[in-house]
Write a structure and sequence with these properties.
Shape: extended
Distance between the termini: 102 Å
Number of strands: 5
CATH topology of one domain: Cyclin A, domain 1
CATH superfamily of one domain: Cyclin-like
Number of helices: 12
Largest sheet: 3 strands, antiparallel
CATH class of one domain: Mainly Alpha
Strand order of the largest sheet: 3-4-5
Length: 327
């Protein structure tokens, strides 16, 4: 039964007040009968009515102490986190490939043959289904290409999610695993805004440029992935760093590209070619020693493409300048 108290202005009950409203003396009293609380082992109860106020407090921290990061890692008893880069998300058991026991000693010939058989059967049980074998091969390709290009782990994780969706939607028949894995990785790069072109993926992939672009268009269309048009401005800082141009040249190239995008020159054009032409034009306008051959070697764009895009960007730049009538 709640107890009514009068504080001179209004009356309140014990049930209405929270623990923060109580005084330190009142916190030691029973919330039901205002009796005295008693602590016994892991239980706090009222001596008057027997109400159990608190019992079995759980300590979620470890029972050991550590004084360094190495000490903390060695005493931790948790496994590796789940990851989408493995076909089973890292939940299965893996037998180590090294033929050593827990103390680091070499195994005998008999035990080595035994563990070799165990590894073989473990691999067979982990990939019994054809979809698991497909997914394992594709995720291995994504991880290999991501490592070759120096991509962040989050991008590869996104690519694995896209590939799993394509596998669930049954988009793989008629197309190679390498093509769909490359398309998934390029789609994740586009979503993350990382400036990498299909040409760069084709250099580390096992397929050519044409097959990669076809697979990418098919993947985006069937999965209805939201993809914005490629922005040439994203490639300028990267190639400016490779060419070691000045900040003035980089800013001039960015301004040329912005004017070209406003005029619609980027529509249907390769973004890397536009970025290369803008850097070349910016170097010419600022007096920096940049040749078409140097820009072509850094950006992997032909000199013909650089010349054509260069002329288009300069025409827009000259048309935006105010004309002075001769009188």
């Amino acid at each position: 039964m709640p107890i009514t108290r009068y504080d001179g202005q209004r009356q309140t009950t014990t049930d209405e007040r929270t623990d923060s409203d109580r005084t330190p003396t009142e916190r030691q009293r029973c919330p039901e009968c205002d009796g005295r609380l008693r602590t016994q082992e892991s239980q706090i109860h009222c001596e008057e009515c027997g109400l159990v106020v608190d019992e079995d407090r759980i300590d979620h921290g470890p029972e050991w102490r550590s004084f360094s990061d190495e000490d903390r890692q060695s005493k931790s008893r948790v496994g590796a986190p789940t990851t989408g880069m493995l076909h089973d998300r890292g939940l299965s058991t893996t037998i180590d490939w090294r033929n050593r026991d827990g103390y680091g000693g070499l195994l005998s010939n008999e035990r080595r043959r035994k563990f070799q058989r165990l590894r073989r059967w473990d691999e067979r049980f982990r990939t019994q289904d054809s979809s698991d074998r497909n997914l394992k091969h594709a995720l291995g390709e994504i991880d290999r290409m991501g490592s070759a290009l120096g991509l962040p782990d989050s991008t590869c994780e996104t690519a694995s999610v896209i590939y799993r969706r394509a596998l669930e939607e049954d988009l793989l028949p008629g197309r190679s695993i390498e093509a769909m894995a490359t398309a998934s990785l390029y789609a994740s790069l586009r979503q993350a805004g990382i400036p990498r072109s299909v040409d760069e993926l084709a250099t580390v992939s096992r397929i050519d440029y044409l097959e990669a672009t076809r697979a990418y268009r098919y993947l985006v269309r069937e999965l209805e992935l939201p993809m914005a048009p490629p922005d040439p401005l994203e490639y300028v800082p990267r190639y400016a760093s490779q060419l070691e141009v000045s900040n003035e040249t980089e800013q001039r190239a960015r301004q040329l590209l912005k004017n070209g995008i406003e005029a619609g020159v980027h529509s249907g054009k390769h973004p890397v070619g536009l970025a290369a032409a803008a850097l070349y034009a910016g170097g010419r306008l600022t007096g920096e020693d940049l040749t078409q051959d140097i820009v072509s070697g850094a950006t992997d764009v032909s000199e013909v493409t650089i010349r054509n895009r260069y002329q288009e960007l300069l025409e827009i730049e000259l048309s935006d300048q105010p004309r002075v009538d001769a009188t």
